[in-house]
Write a structure and sequence with these properties.
This protein is α/β, with parallel strands linked by helices. Helix content is 24%, strand content 29%. A hairpin with a 2-residue loop joins strand 11 and strand 12. The chain starts with a strand and ends in a 16-residue tail after the last helix.
Length: 224
Amino acid sequence: VMLTVRSFVFNPFQENAYVLFDETRECVVIDPGCFDESEKQELASFIETEKLKVQILLNTHCHVDHVLGNYFVKEKYKVNLLLHALDEPVLKAVTAYAPSYGLYHYEESKADAFLEEGDTIRFGNQELEVIFTPGHSPGHVVFYHPKEKILIGGDVLFYNSIGRTDLPGGNFDQLIQSIHQKLFVLPDQVKVFPGHGPSTTLGYEKRTNPFCALTDVNTPAPNS
């Protein structure tokens, strides 16, 4: 029962979108940043070629670069969009500011249901755990697959970097707390698939990340 993770790099922000699927061909789409027609076609062609059945659309958070393809995925595959309630205002704000980034013709989409810490996302033979990790945005969540030790991490933790906290609703202290108390308590071998850039592992970031490395990786994170 293998989980397959396929990533796509979309839009001018070079955002990582993900499709997760298994042998049942059921799949979830996470953070579809596809904006222009060629990007939408790239995502749709992959789903068609692999004969996948889209079950759910998930957002780790709702900054513009992660939600540009929400409308496309919702309409084409008739699926529900799930995100954390605290990021609903972040999603609603995109319509107002997308043009200032040169992203015209943004199509708005609405959340169908809200995620909370501890929720389980089920598709095929897979289960993803929802972990609440605010700081980059107020309602940021990550999706953890304990069996395969895979984490779809959005913009919390990157390869030797962390999510920016200078956007509205960002909070540096909260982000560092999320990393230490929610992510670094997971096994070192967990592979992180972030919202931008290459994948990494929690163990590697614990040792080397200049923003949040633990000086002694054997000691628990503060307040954990």
